[in-house]
Specification:
- By secondary structure, this protein is an all-alpha fold.
- The protein is built from 15 helices and four strands.
- It has a domain at about 45-290.
- It has helices at about 25-30, 30-40, 45, 50-75, 85-100, 110-135, 140-160, 185-210, 210-220, 225-230, 235-260, 270-280, 290-310, 320-330, 335-350, and strands spanning about 5, 10, 170, 260.
- The strands form two sheets. A two-stranded antiparallel ribbon has the order 1-2.
- A hairpin with a 5-residue loop joins strand 1 and strand 2 (about 10).
- Helix 4 packs antiparallel against helix 11, helix 5 runs antiparallel to helix 6 and helix 5 crosses helix 11 (about 235-260).
């Protein structure tokens, strides 16, 4: 056991060395339910078809990563950015421009080991500039600035034909065949998106507990006090944009590979709002929330038109169901689906277990 000094902070320097037979702390701290979900996802191709793997889970992982970048800014930094989809779209455009595509007059056909990191770097620089502008404001003004940047990016890509090929965009943008594997086939692409989503989730959890993450949360709660303690509030907020952009950029590259094309509508204003809805529905307090919201969104987006057609309603009004679901979740739980789950667990513990009679109020 670690000792505690006069400040109440555990003193890790006096902690005894862990025995070789003991399970590492970071492994023992993972809930059993997470292990169950992880094993289920690993063996999902055994029971799921190609459509479910590629279109449902692949898309949910990609949207979840973009929403995760928003969750990191909003949940840990207190900054709501509507430009995360634009950052992902820019990374996707850079892959199409720098790498191979069907538009041979514009694409440069660089090797994959060069155009992928350059695309992520350009997206990170773009996000850093956005952050440098957005962090000078607060609240609704931050939302409006990032929304204006997202709108400007959409109209610029649609009207520029020299670099972004205008309204048509780029087609035949596929991942490179590494190790002799076609990564756009359903099973390989499922494992590729699953690995990227798992790594992004683990990195966000780690960073949130690191000195930078804890300082960022302190800046969120009381920036004046953090500045008085010697922390650079401006630098922490801007770097948060840079860090979150890397996750969004990787998701943007996967999104382009999944669709095999990119056009201005990929990062249009409806897509920008969708990311905000996904993050809020899942929950902005925990990194798992965006993936839950993305899975719910993809399910509704995929099957809502069929439900509407069965009810003799126009199938193109599927966003009506998504909007109603969004309103219901926000009304009953501002913390999203995770908030509903926590309320249910708290209510169950308050009432007690009906079988044993334990767990109720004392």
């Amino acid at each position: 056991m670690a000792t505690v000094d006069q400040t109440g902070i555990p003193n890790r320097l006096t902690r005894p060395r862990q025995a070789a037979s003991d399970v590492p702390e970071w492994i023992s701290g993972i809930p059993v339910s997470w292990w169950v979900v992880g094993v289920a996802l690993l063996f999902m191709p055994v029971v799921a078809g190609n459509f479910v793997l590629f279109q449902i889970f692949g898309w949910a992982f990609i949207l979840g990563m973009i929403a995760l970048s928003l969750m990191f800014l909003g949940g840990y930094g207190g900054m709501v950015s509507l430009a995360q989809m634009s950052i992902a779209g820019l990374a996707g455009y850079m892959v199409a421009i720098l790498g191979p595509s069907g538009v041979q007059t514009i694409s440069l056909f660089w090797p994959w080991w060069l155009y992928i990191p350059v695309a992520i770097l350009i997206a990170a620089l773009f996000a850093t500039l956005i952050g440098a502008l957005a962090v000078r404001t607060e609240g609704i003004y931050t939302i409006m600035i990032t929304l204006a940047i997202a709108a400007a990016f959409f109209y610029f890509t649609r009207q520029n034909y020299t670099i972004f090929n205008g309204y048509t965009g780029f087609a035949n943008v596929v991942p490179p065949e590494l190790f002799g594997i076609n990564w756009r086939r359903p099973i390989p692409f499922y494992y590729l998106t699953l690995a990227c989503a798992a790594i992004s989730f683990a990195v966000v959890v780690y960073v949130s507990r690191s000195p930078f993450g804890l300082a960022l949360q302190g800046v969120r709660d009381n920036p004046r006090r953090m500045a008085a303690l010697g922390f650079n509030v401006f630098a922490h907020r801007v770097f948060a944009y840079t860090f979150a952009s890397i996750i969004a950029a990787v998701a943007g590259i996967l999104m382009v590979w999944q669709n095999a094309q990119i056009a201005p509508g990929t990062a249009g204003l409806p897509a920008v709002i969708d990311i905000l809805v996904i993050a809020i529905v899942g929950g902005l307090k925990r990194p798992i929330g965006p993936f839950i919201g993305a899975f719910i969104y993809v399910i509704l987006r995929t099957y809502a038109p069929d439900i509407l057609l069965a009810l003799n309603l126009p199938g193109d009004r599927f966003k009506l169901l998504i909007g109603l679901g969004f309103l219901a979740v926000v009304y009953w739980s501002p913390d999203g689906v995770l908030g509903l789950w926590e309320k249910w667990r708290s209510h169950r513990q308050t009432r007690g277990d009906p079988l044993t009679g334990q767990g109720g109020k004392s």
